[in-house]
Design goal:
Keywords: Kinase, Transferase
Strand content: 15-25%
InterPro entries: CcrZ_PhaseVar_Mediator, Kinase-like_dom_sf, Nucleotide-diphossugar_trans
Structural class: alpha+beta
CATH superfamily of the largest domain: Spore Coat Polysaccharide Biosynthesis Protein SpsA, Chain A
GO molecular function, one term: kinase activity
CATH class of the largest domain: Alpha Beta
Oligomer: single chain
Largest sheet: 9 strands, mixed
Number of domains: 3
Distance between the termini: 61 Å
Helix content: 25-40%
Protein name: Choline kinase
Shape: globular
Length: about 525
């Protein structure tokens, strides 16, 4: 299979330039990236279907890339664009939506699939335009953009599909009979196939996104693309082997298999050695002074004893290098999947169990002390905080006495409750990982972080609070949560400034948090 079809004809309603042509952080664009990925896999017959601003795509025409126009792009949807290549396609092909950003491995995996048709799925993204999927026994049985029609969420379609020529011909026959020019190709595909003809590959924890509007594009360039660039950066295998050599000191690790699996603060790698799988954590740029590794080691082990943290097999408190049990076939929760009812119940119960335990963590996490410490690090590396921070800083520290008036209670807390720190194994058990910032703190700070980082809906905020407090929510709980969200936004904004001064790039992440803190200060009349 050396044929691919890229659909990029759609009219944009909030941009004069098609989003597939808008620049990414590295100077390329979605179309260029997809074409480069295909050429790298030796595709030599690439049909790029265009419509809106068609002339702008002509620069990509080459011996391997043919530009095909859908002159009816304004009056048709994706099936109408796919139909224009029917006379040109003579073999099985990859069908790729031009507004999708994804990891290279998606194309490679689909190419290597032995199935004639093969769909690609990942976890629900929460982007608002998802094509949800139901599956059974390895096949996709239903898709819908209406979540009310899905009984059991299995994932979301990526917009990248391997199609057999025979299936495509059946789709074309149905298209000729259709009186709906706005039908999308996915629904035509489902109408001409049985479930057994719709196998899929699941890509868990994939870094990806699609761009349907300006906010999608801003998220792509300021977050998604940066995360993928960090993940795809080459790493020094020799250094990793040296770490592993220290861990497995009496064994030859030269043939170990190493695969990078992401990480924001740190670099994480899946390690396969002697038929066993592990996660190797190597601290990233600017970690020195930010994390007290001896506290992390002690607290992480206490988390293991409670059964909420996967087993840790090696921890070097000097370097921060850690080797932990790898959870096979695990799902990393995200801002969408954490808000499913079953997951909401589980993660809330984990926090109740942690907070109400008799465990005494090795240290206290005081957000005001942490802010001062990060400010010292910021000064040390010669970085500057965002505009107007002196005024904001005063309002931030005025919150300390306000919190004391409302009442603070210290309990064991995780203090870094991004949804990605919850991982779910294939049996449904959820673990809480990465205890770098753990310590004794007010549990409302943990709840504030979880609700903030995943952008919980108001309904889900109420669900969590009712479950956490068994229906008896104390007065001022939501006010305290808002205060802690302000403090955490300000703290992680400084964290970002320090990390970027040491070479990382987090796009608008730090500024977004800083300005959100200011907006919330205004809401509670503190600035």
């Amino acid at each position: 299979m050396r044929t691919a079809v890229i659909l990029a004809a759609r009219k944009e309603y909030d941009s004069k330039t098609p989003y597939p042509l808008m620049p990414l952080d590295d100077g390329s664009c979605l179309i260029q990236r997809t074409i480069d990925n295909l050429l790298e896999l030796d595709f030599n017959k690439i049909f790029l279907v265009v419509g809106f601003c068609a002339q702008a795509f002509e620069q990509y025409a080459s011996q391997c890339v043919q530009i095909i126009r859908n002159d009816d792009y304004a009056f048709t949807a994706s099936m109408g664009s796919l139909a224009v290549v029917a006379p040109l396609v003579s073999e099985d092909f990859l069908l790729i939506e031009g507004d999708v950003f994804y990891e290279k491995k998606v194309l490679k995996t689909l190419c290597e699939s032995s199935y004639a048709n093969c769909l690609s799925l990942t976890e629900e993204s929460g982007n608002g335009d998802e094509a949800f999927a139901e599956t059974k026994n390895g096949f996709v049985t239903k898709i819908s953009k209406d979540r009310h029609r899905i009984v059991k969420f299995a994932g979301e379609m990526l917009g990248i599909t391997k199609l057999s020529l025979s299936t495509f011909r059946r789709m074309m026959e149905l298209w000729k009979e259709s009186n709906n020019p706005y039908v999308n190709y996915e629904y035509v595909l489902f109408d001409v196939t049985d479930a057994i003809e719709r196998p899929y590959v699941m890509f868990p924890n994939l870094i990806w996104g699609d761009v349907d509007c300006r906010s999608d594009y801003e998220k792509l360039i300021n977050d998604t693309a940066l995360r993928l660039r960090r993940k795809e950066n080459p790493f020094d295998r020799a250094n990793l082997l040296e770490y592993l050599g220290n861990i497995f000191s009496e064994q030859d690790v030269s043939s170990v298999a190493i695969e990078q699996i992401g990480g924001m603060s740190n670099k994480n790698f899946k390690v396969t050695f002697n038929n066993k799988e592990y996660v190797l954590r190597v601290p990233g740029n600017g970690s020195e002074g930010m994390v007290e590794r001896k506290n992390e080691e002690c607290n992480s082990m206490l988390g293991c004893e409670m059964g909420v943290n996967p087993a840790i097999l090696y921890f070097d408190s000097e370097t921060g290098v850690k080797l932990a049990e790898f959870i096979s076939n695990a799902e990393t929760l995200n801002s969408a999947t954490i808000q499913r009812t079953d997951n909401l119940k589980t993660v809330t119960d984990i926090l109740k169990r942690l907070h109400n335990s008799s465990v005494r963590l090795n240290n206290e996490f005081n957000v005001f002390h942490e802010i001062i410490r990060y400010e010292q690090l910021m000064e040390l590396v010669g970085a500057r905080m965002y505009e107007g921070w002196q005024k904001v800083r005063k309002a931030i520290f005025d919150l300390e006495s306000y919190l004391n008036e409302l009442g603070i209670i210290l309990k064991p807390c995780h203090n870094d409750l991004v949804p990605e720190n919850f991982i779910k194994d294939e049996c449904g058990k959820v673990y809480l990982i990465d205890w770098e910032y753990s310590g004794m703190n007010d549990p409302m700070s943990d709840l504030a972080a979880m609700l903030l980082e995943a952008n919980f809906t108001e309904e889900n905020v109420d669900f969590v609070l009712n479950r956490y407090f068994d229906g008896d929510i104390p007065a001022n709980t939501k006010l305290k949560i808002t205060i802690y969200q302000i403090l955490l936004d300000y703290l992680w904004a400084i964290w970002t400034v320090v990390k970027e001064a040491k070479g990382d790039d987090f796009g608008t992440y730090g500024r977004d948090r800083y300005y959100r803190a200011i907006e919330n200060l205004k809401k509670i009349n503190r600035i």
